[in-house]
From TrEMBL:
Keywords: Activator, ATP-binding, Membrane, Nucleotide-binding, Transmembrane, Transmembrane helix. It is found in: Cell membrane. It comes from the Bacteria. The keyword Nucleotide-binding applies. It holds the Pfam family cNMP_binding. It comes from Brevibacillus choshinensis. It is a multi-pass membrane protein. This is ATP-binding cassette domain-containing protein. The chain crosses the membrane at residues 21-43, 55-77, 133-154, 160-177, 246-267, 273-300. Residues 596-718 form the Cyclic nucleotide-binding domain. Its main location: membrane. PANTHER family: ATP-BINDING CASSETTE SUB-FAMILY B MEMBER 10, MITOCHONDRIAL, ATP-DEPENDENT PERMEASE MDL1, MITOCHONDRIAL. Residues 21-302 form the ABC transmembrane type-1 domain. SMART domains: AAA, cNMP.
C-alpha cells in the first residue's frame, strides 16, 4: 500500500497547487462528515432532555451553516480531483508512449503486442481507478476512522477499545490474503495480454486463416486460451471477493458486541442516552468508512501489479544514442560507410554476420546480394543503427555509429523496406511524413517520381484518400510506391533500399529502378536485392553467404572471377519476362543447367522449353499444399517463396524449411511420379513461375527413349 501511495504522490508531484487545493477542500468536507454525528450528544443531552428550544435552534443553525460551506468545499474538491486525475493520466500516457518510442527495435521483437496494448488498456486505467478511490473513499474513510476513533474514546473508552480490537481483525485478514491476491491478479493480467496478442494476430492473419480453412483450428486454440483466462479470472475474482468479504464478517461481529455492551452501559446509567446515540451514530459512520476502505484494498492490489509493470517498462534502457556527432549542412551529400570487422547475432551465441568488413565511398552505389537468410537485411539494419554489433563497428564518415546522434543521423536517411507500413491517415500525410516541411508541390513531385501520382489523382478523393487498416485498401505495389515517394521526398544523402521493388511488376520495377539511378547521383545508395539484373551497373556488389562476405567487386569483375557471384548470376540468367510480367520464358542453355536435363540434346531442350507455362501468384497465396497430388515442376522466374511443413506436434503450426527465389526450382519429384507433396509452398512476394506438367514432358520424351531413360534415372537419383 505504501508503494502505491508513494508512486501516486510521485505522479502528482508536478501538480502541487492542484493537489493542495483538493486536499484543503476535502479536509473541510471531511471535518463536517466526521464530526456531524457528535451533534446528537449536544442536541439530546443539552436541548431535547432539558427542553431548551433556543439551544436546539442554535445547534441547528451551526449545522446548516457549516453544512453549506462543506458542501461547497466538497464540490470544489470534485473539480480539483477531476482535473488532477485527467492530468496525471495524460502525463502517464505520454511518458509511457514516449519511452516506448525510444526503446530499441529488439524490445519490440521480444515483446508481445498484447503486452504493449495492456499498458494502456489495463495498467493505466487500474492506476486511474486507485487514484480516484484512494483520493476520495480512501482519504475520506481513513480520516473519518481516525476522527471517529478519537471521539469514540472521548464518549466511552471501553466500547471504543473493543472497536479497535475488531478493526484489527478487519484488516489482518486482507493483509494476509494480499500476496495471493496479487499473484492471482498478475496471472490474470498475463493471460489477458496473451489473449489480446492472439486476437491481434488473428485479425491480421484473416487471409491466411480463410485461405487455409483454419477457422476450426483457430477457434479451438482460442477456446483453450479462453479456458486458461477463465481459470485465472475466476481466481482473481474470488480473491477480490474474499478481500471484501472477510472485513464484512468482522464488522458484523463488532456490531453485535457494541449493541449489547452499549445498551447495557446505558441501562446501568454509566453513559447518557445522548452519548449512546452519538456513539452509535459515530460508530455507524465509522463502520461505513471502514466498509469503504475494504473496497480500496482490491484496487490497491491491482494497481500495485500495474505500477510494477509500468516501472519495469520505464526501467528498460532506451536505444543507445551518441550525443557527439550530427550532420551539418555541408556534409549533406558526403556519406561514407565503413563496416569494420562486424560480428552480430540476434542471439549472442548465434552470429548472423561474421567478421564482415566493407567500405562504401560517398556518392557510390553498393548492393548486398546472396541467398535468403545470408544476413543482407541484417547488415542494412545495423547501418540504420537498429542494432549494435557485438564485435567491430559501423563507421559513418569515419566516426563510429555509436557516437552519432541517432536521430540526426536517421533524419538524413531515406529508407524503403520490404514491408512498408502505412499509417491511418491520408495518402498525402503518409508521403509527407518523411519531410514535414514539404509543400504540396514537393509531395506531388515525389509521387510522380515514384510513379504513383497518376493513380492517386484517379481516386475520387485524390491525395486525401484515406489509408485504412495499415494500407489494406492498396495493393502491395501501390504501398511500396507510396513508401518510395516518402524516401524520395526526404531527399537524403544516403538511400537504403531493402528489396525496395519486390512488390512491383517488371515494367514498374524497371522504371522505378531508373528513378533510383537518377536519384543516386551525388548520394550513397545501398540496396539489398536478390534481383541481380537490377544492380549490374552498381559500383560495388557485396556477396553474402551464411553471414560471411564471400565476394565483392563490380558485376563484370565478379563474373570474370568465376566465384560465388557467377553462380548466382547464372541461376537467374536465361529466364526472361515479357514487359507486362505475365509471360515468362526460359532459354535452352538455362534449361540444360537444370540437373536432370544436363546432357540432353539441345534440340529436345528447345522443344521442352516451349512446353513451360507461365503461372502468376499473389503475395501470400499458396502454390502447393502439403499432401496435394503432385504433377507439376516449378521454376521461379521472379519472386520469393517459402517452403514449410506442418510441425509433428500439430499445435506448433508450420516449420519453415527454406526460402527460394529467382532462378530456384521446386517440385521436381512430380516429374517422376504422382506422389503427394511433402511440403507447402507459399508466395512471399508476387511471383511468376515457369511450370512443366509431367504428362506434357513425358509426351515429348516418349519420342526419345534414350533421353527419357536418362531424365528418369537422374530424377530418381535426386529423389533418393
Ligand atoms: N529479428 C530477428 N530475430 C532473430 N533472427 C533473425 C531476425 N531477423 C533475421 N533473423 C535471422 O537472421 C538471419 C539473416 O536474416 P536476414 O533477414 O538478414 O537475411 P537476408 O539475407 O536479408 O534474407 P532475405 O533475402 O530472405 O531477406 C536469418 O537466419 C534469419 O532467420
Amino acid at each position: 500500500m505504501l508503494t502505491v501511495i508513494k508512486n501516486l504522490l510521485s505522479y502528482m508531484r508536478s501538480y502541487k497547487l492542484l493537489t493542495s487545493l483538493f486536499l484543503l477542500a476535502l479536509l473541510f468536507d471531511l471535518a463536517f462528515i466526521s464530526l456531524a454525528p457528535l451533534s446528537f450528544k449536544f442536541i439530546i443531552d443539552k436541548a431535547v432532555e432539558p427542553r431548551d428550544p433556543d439551544y436546539f435552534f442554535f445547534i441547528l443553525k451551526v449545522l446548516v451553516f457549516t453544512g453549506v460551506i462543506c458542501l461547497g468545499m466538497g464540490i470544489l474538491s470534485d473539480f480539483a480531483l477531476a482535473r488532477l486525475h485527467t492530468r496525471v493520466q495524460a502525463d502517464l500516457h505520454k511518458r509511457i508512449f514516449e519511452h516506448i518510442q525510444h526503446l530499441p527495435i529488439s524490445y519490440f521483437q521480444k515483446t508481445r503486442s498484447g503486452d504493449l496494448v495492456a499498458f494502456f488498456s489495463i495498467d493505466l486505467p487500474a492506476i486511474g481507478r486507485v487514484m480516484n478511490v484512494l483520493l476520495t473513499t480512501g482519504i475520506q474513510s481513513f480520516f473519518v476512522v481516525i476522527v471517529s476513533t478519537v471521539v469514540l474514546f472521548y464518549l466511552e473508552w471501553s466500547m471504543a477499545a473493543l472497536i479497535l480490537v475488531g478493526a484489527f481483525a478487519i484488516f489482518i485478514g486482507p493483509y494476509l490474503l494480499s500476496p495471493r491476491a496479487r499473484k492471482a491478479s498478475e496471472d490474470d493480467l498475463q493471460q489477458f495480454t496473451q489473449m489480446t496478442t492472439e486476437l491481434q494476430e488473428n485479425m491480421k492473419a484473416q487471409k491466411v486463416i480463410k485461405g487455409y480453412n483454419l477457422q476450426a483450428a483457430v477457434i479451438e486454440k482460442f477456446s483453450s486460451r479462453l479456458q486458461l483466462l477463465s481459470a485465472t479470472g475466476y481466481r482473481r475474482h474470488l480473491m477480490n471477493q474474499q478481500l471484501e468479504r472477510i472485513p464484512l464478517i468482522s464488522l458484523l461481529f463488532i456490531n453485535l458486541t457494541i449493541i449489547g455492551l452499549g445498551s447495557y452501559l446505558a441501562l446501568t446509567g454509566k453513559i447518557t442516552v445522548g452519548a449512546l446515540v452519538a456513539f452509535f451514530t459515530m460508530y455507524t459512520s465509522m463502520g461505513n468508512s471502514v466498509f469503504g476502505l475494504t473496497f480500496v484494498i482490491p484496487a490497491l492490489t491491482e494497481a500495485r501489479v500495474s505500477m510494477e509493470r509500468i516501472s519495469d517498462l520505464l526501467a528498460q534502457s532506451r536505444e543507445a544514442n551518441g550525443q557527439r556527432i550530427s550532420f551539418t549542412s555541408d556534409t549533406h551529400s558526403q556519406v561514407d560507410v565503413q563496416v569494420d570487422h562486424v560480428t552480430f547475432g540476434y542471439e549472442t551465441k548465434q552470429p548472423v554476420l561474421k567478421e564482415v568488413s566493407l567500405g562504401i565511398p560517398p556518392g557510390s552505389r553498393a548492393a548486398f546480394v546472396g541467398s535468403s537468410g545470408s544476413g543482407k537485411s541484417t547488415l542494412l539494419q545495423l547501418l540504420l543503427g537498429f542494432y549494435d554489433p557485438q564485435l567491430g563497428q559501423v563507421k559513418i564518415n569515419g566516426t563510429s555509429l555509436a557516437d552519432w546522434n541517432r536521430g540526426a543521423y536517421r533524419e538524413r536517411i531515406g529508407v524503403v523496406f520490404q514491408e512498408n507500413f502505412l499509417f491511418h491517415g491520408s495518402i498525402y500525410d503518409n508521403i509527407r511524413i518523411s519531410q514535414p516541411l514539404a509543400t504540396r508541390e514537393d509531395v506531388i513531385w515525389a509521387a510522380k517520381k515514384a510513379e504513383i501520382h497518376e493513380y492517386i489523382i484517379g481516386l475520387p478523393d485524390g491525395y486525401e484518400t484515406m489509408v485504412l487498416d495499415e494500407g489494406s485498401n492498396f495493393s502491395g505495389g501501390q504501398r511500396q510506391r507510396i513508401a518510395i515517394a516518402r524516401a524520395i521526398l526526404r531527399d537524403p544523402p544516403i538511400l537504403l533500399l531493402d528489396e525496395a521493388t519486390s512488390a512491383l511488376d517488371p515494367i514498374s520495377e524497371a522504371s522505378i529502378n531508373r528513378t533510383f539511378d537518377e536519384l543516386a547521383k551525388g548520394r550513397t545508395v545501398i540496396s539489398v536485392t536478390h534481383r541481380l539484373a537490377a544492380i549490374t551497373g552498381y559500383d560495388q556488389i557485396f556477396v553474402f553467404d551464411q553471414g560471411k562476405l564471400v565476394d565483392q567487386g563490380s558485376h563484370q569483375e565478379m563474373l570474370d572471377r568465376d566465384g560465388s557471384y557467377k553462380g548466382l548470376w547464372e541461376k537467374q540468367s536465361g529466364l526472361s519476362l515479357s514487359q507486362n510480367g505475365q509471360e515468362a520464358t526460359i532459354d535452352q542453355e538455362r534449361l540444360s543447367r537444370l540437373p536432370f536435363f544436363q546432357g540432353v540434346d539441345p534440340a529436345v531442350l528447345g522443344e521442352i522449353s516451349d512446353l513451360f507455362q507461365t503461372e502468376t501468384y499473389a503475395k501470400g497465396q499458396a502454390i502447393i499444399q502439403e499432401g496435394d497430388a503432385g504433377e507439376k515442376f516449378y521454376l521461379i522466374a521472379r519472386g520469393k517463396v517459402e517452403i514449410t511443413k506442418a510441425a509433428p506436434d500439430s499445435d506448433s503450426g508450420q516449420i519453415r524449411l527454406a526460402v527460394l527465389e529467382d532462378g530456384d526450382h521446386f517440385g521436381e519429384i512430380a516429374l517422376l511420379e504422382n506422389v503427394p507433396r511433402t511440403a507447402t509452398v507459399t508466395a512471399l512476394t508476387p511471383c511468376v513461375f515457369l511450370t512443366l506438367q509431367r504428362k506434357v514432358l513425358y509426351y515429348i520424351l516418349s519420342r526419345y527413349p534414350e533421353i527419357d531413360a536418362h531424365v528418369k534415372r537422374t530424377l530418381a537419383q535426386r529423389r533418393s
